[in-house]
Design goal:
By secondary structure, this protein is an all-alpha fold. The protein has helices at 10-24, 26-29, 33-53, 56-78, 87-100, 103-106, 114-128, 145-159, 178-194, 199-223.
Length: 229
């Protein structure tokens, strides 16, 4: 059980601590948004480690470190002379978005299965992002290559199944479980190393090709809309 605290609002204490640090720490005063990116990457990786192999104490600590990054960015933003916003603005926007994207919780919609929830989520997201013209809008190229590959394969299938990569079973590579998939991926990396290839570079090059294919199909559909569209 957690020990009692003088101030039960730990989040507000953290916000106040961040403000004091920004005001009084000469190192922190020099930091801007871009300077924090390497720390965000590092803290995110440590949080993943805590989720996958760490203890409950590790998870609690790393969640706090990631939260500090959010508070740091928000405190920097609050002092912007042109478009200031603070952590309350960030949290308020988040709450509003989560309410919109859960109409089965906060509205009159019904969703009895995870698939039905996903349909409602995607519909709400599409309404919010009406200015987007491509399924690739909002997909960061800085994602880890395998995560990006999985994302782009799904995007490709949503545009045109014909541009999706060849199904592994068609190549004779049949994976029956997650462990076998891990072994297969590791074996492919080992084979690339034996041949002097950089697996990361090769995959990213292939993903750039897939991205170009998706955009080409989207442009073709825009130039030649189907009847009834």
């Amino acid at each position: 059980m957690s020990q009692p605290r003088d101030d039960a609002d730990g989040l507000r204490r953290a916000v106040d601590a961040m403000r004091e640090v920004r005001d009084r720490c000469v190192w922190t005063q020099q930091i801007e948004h871009a300077d924090l990116v390497p720390y965000l990457v590092e803290e995110s990786a440590e949080l993943i480690d805590a989720v996958e192999v760490g203890s409950r104490a590790d998870l609690r600590e790393e969640l706090g470190d990631v939260l500090w990054q959010v508070l740091f960015h928000a405190e920097i933003a609050s002092r912007d002379e042109v478009e200031p916003f603070d952590i309350d603005d960030v949290a308020g926007d988040l709450a509003d978005k989560m309410v919109r994207r859960h109409p089965h919780v906060f509205g009159g919609k019904t969703a009895r299965t995870p698939d039905e929830v996903l349909v409602l989520w995607n519909a709400a997201k599409a309404e919010e992002k009406r200015e987007r013209t491509s399924v690739l809008d909002g997909v960061s190229e800085r994602m880890p290559s395998l995560a990006l590959a999985q994302k782009l394969v799904g995007k490709a299938a949503s545009v045109d199944a014909r541009i999706a990569p060849v199904d592994a079973e068609q190549t004779g590579l049949v994976i029956d479980d997650e462990a076998a998939l891990g072994d297969a991926l590791l074996a492919l990396v080992a084979q690339a190393r034996q041949r002097g290839w950089d697996a990361e570079t090769i995959l990213r090059e292939r993903l750039r090709t897939l991205t170009a294919q998706i955009r080409a199909v989207e442009q073709s559909c825009t130039a030649h809309p189907q009847p009834g569209e």
